[in-house]
Amino acid sequence: MAIPDWLDETESRAWKGYVLTRDRLAAAIGRDLARESDLTFVEYHVLASLHSTPQHRMGLSELADTLQWSQSRLSHQITRMERRKLVARESAVRDARCSDAVLTETGLETLCNAAPGHIASVRKHFIDNLDDVQLATLADTFDTLLKYLTGGEPGPSPQNT
Amino acid sequence: MAIPDWLDETESRAWKGYVLTRDRLAAAIGRDLARESDLTFVEYHVLASLHSTPQHRMGLSELADTLQWSQSRLSHQITRMERRKLVARESAVRDARCSDAVLTETGLETLCNAAPGHIASVRKHFIDNLDDVQLATLADTFDTLLKYLTGGEPGPSPQNT
């Protein structure tokens, strides 16, 4: 019994390369973060997501959508981070029945302390291994994929252009 | 207090695009798999990894390395998959003190049943949204990154070439 292989050689290299790179990149960058800060990659991602908003807060539903997590998984994560005073839960400004996750002073300080090392790690394992053309193509490729994945739009063109 | 932003615009689009795409792509492809088969993306990945070897078996250490998981996380995963008879644990051929994970008949059948839908899903969410140049560049880019991440080799050239 064989698995049908409906991907051609380049497609297969792109997809399998993506899957393998994804796991190894997360591991390498996660190890650097753990060594140099008290944050996991996931915690850094949550803090950086909150930091990216003007008020340093985000509705739990929106944050779950950004991270593509279930509400329940996010809720457990936020509870763990609340215990460490990295984030707080507050009533949402627009609708008191909903909750926002809010970056605390401790969270901001922890994020800012971790950022230089994390950015250096992203450079080392990802950016500095790629040339300008690869980087620019990657940036455009992820723009295209994100547009599709967030809006359900079809890609900009048929596969072969 | 601000996070230093040491990535230029293209670098930032490439990295943040990568992180956001990664989470959404895994979610979209995971949802398709869950709807059309009894497998999670992780389970599919384990079965496909075993299937990719000539004997449909792999040492637990090697499998942990392929997936970039701790031995303990892998062991729990394999135990859950053993209960469903998707894989079996056997003494390693080369060293009976070590264990191999082995693809069972049920595992093979489950994988082969899931494969056409999974490949269609990978096409839909990933490959078909990209043109030939993007795909070829991605394939080369992931080759470069994997070579570095698996061997600790420096990238092929300084950043600007």
Automatic annotation (TrEMBL), chains A, B:
Gene3D superfamilies, per database record? Winged helix-like DNA-binding domain superfamily/Winged helix DNA-binding domain (1.10.10.10)
For this protein, the record's InterPro entries field holds: HTH_MarR-typ (IPR000835), MarR/SlyA-like (IPR039422), WH-like_DNA-bd_sf (IPR036388), WH_DNA-bd_sf (IPR036390)
**Cited SMART domains:** HTH_MARR (SM00347)
- Ranges for domain HTH marR-type: 1-147
Q: Which Pfam families match?
A: MarR
| GO BP annotations listed | response to stress
Name the Gene Ontology molecular function terms of this record: DNA-binding transcription factor activity
Name of the protein described by the UniProt record? Winged helix-turn-helix transcriptional regulator
From what organism does this protein derive?
Antrihabitans stalagmiti
Q: What is the lineage of its organism?
A: Bacteria, Bacillati, Actinomycetota, Actinomycetes, Mycobacteriales
